[in-house]
Design a protein that fits this description.
This protein is α+β, with helices and mostly antiparallel strands and 242 residues long. The protein has helices at residues 10-14, 20-30, 34-42, 44-49, 63-81, 87-100, 106-109, 130-137, and strands spanning 121-122, 141-142, 144-145, 150-158, 161-169, 175-183, 188-196, 211-217, 224-231, 236-241. A hairpin with a 4-residue loop joins strand 9 and strand 10. The longest helix is centred in the N-terminal third of the chain and has 19 residues, at 63-81. The protein starts with 9 loop residues before the first helix and ends with a strand.
Length: 242
Amino acid sequence: MNAKIEHTDVGAYALGLLEEPDRRAFEAHLSGCPSCTAELSGLSGVAGALSGLGPVEDAEPRQDDAEIIDLLRRRGAAARRTRRGTFVIGIAAAVTLVATGVTIGGAMAGGQGGSGAVAGSHAGAHEAGPAQEFYEAGAPVAGSGADGVTGGLVVEGKSWGTHAALKLAGVRGPLRCELIAVAKNGERRVMTGWAVPAEGYGVPGSSNPALYMHGGSPFMPAEIDRFEVNTTSGKTLLTVDI
């Protein structure tokens, strides 16, 4: 990771699996990457499950557990070298299961694309992921959509900027989309991105009633005029005024 910081090292960092040089490099990257910061916040459930336990390397695991953890570390290093983007999240879930004996991987199973594997989930296809849980627990602001698209946002201020969770439905694929924060001064920042499959979300024939994504922006909430869901070809699918 010294040559190029991997966004997908969020899970490994959260569980203390990175080597010291990689850990320092990732922390430097984290200070300027709102998407990774938002993902790290989304892993709070993992941190909660591990509360009361020391770091993996300081624990005294059984012989079998120690061998499993060592194997996961070596496979994680190989994954970063070959840029297997989502493997690190699998490591995070697996190590948590070994260390705590609780099943929390289901919350990650619905992950797809966007700012990281835990960033999004298909409503109805899996257990609710962090984005859906945050959205449903908040106070959504409905957006104005085009061509039958519906959706909304839940927004919260952070010390580093703004965290937002998006619900999107009524959209047909295949498309590539981005959630964009538009500041009052006109500056635009991409918060997260994803691909819409051919069957779409919340349309006739689709098995997925809605898509949930979350992302981060360095703008503070008071600096933001609106949020947009745009295709990479430039079409605006949804606008949410704040």
